[in-house]
Amino acid sequence: VLTTNKTIQLKISDVNDNPPRFSQTVYTAYVTENNIIGSSVYSVPASDADVNLNSKLSYSILKTQAGGSPVFGYVSINSDSGVISAERSFDYEDLKRFQIEIQATDAGELPLS
């Protein structure tokens, strides 16, 4: 009887099966009034358990109101890093607090948020 053996190495490829996750559900940032326009006010890093493009994240601000106006006049977000910056100088007497909603989306073939 003659036989031969062959070892086959299987490499498992990643599918985009994990959505991005923030480490907390709510974050609170304290910003002093009369801040410098364009200054960083907070950073919201997310993570994704996938690899390669399936884990590359893009950040955005969802439509939100601040003092009856669109939040985009108050803050912006760096889509690559998740750093939130002030678009204006804040005045405590005019606006004491507001909320924004941040979304992280991965770059997978079927993007997850």
* Major sheet: 3 strands, antiparallel
Structural class: mainly beta
- Order of secondary-structure elements: EEEEEEEEE
Helical fraction equals: under 10%
Which residue ranges are poorly predicted, with pLDDT under 50 across at least 5 consecutive positions? none
User: Hey, roughly how much beta strand do the residues contain?
Assistant: 25-35%
Q: What is the global morphology?
A: rod-shaped
Strands ordered across the widest β-sheet: 2-8-7
Q: What's the average pLDDT? A: 92
Number of strands: 9
Measure the end-to-end span.
Answer: 58 Å
| Rg calc | 21 Å
Number of helices: 0
Protein architecture, described:
The structure is a single chain. With 113 residues, this protein is an all-beta fold. It contains no helices and 9 strands. It has strands at residues 21-22, 40-43, 46-47, 57-61, 65-66, 69-70, 75-77, 83-86, 102-106. It is rod-shaped.
Could you give a short description of this structure?
With 113 residues, this protein is mainly beta. It is built from no helices and nine strands. The strands form four sheets. It has a three-stranded antiparallel sheet, with no helix packed on it.
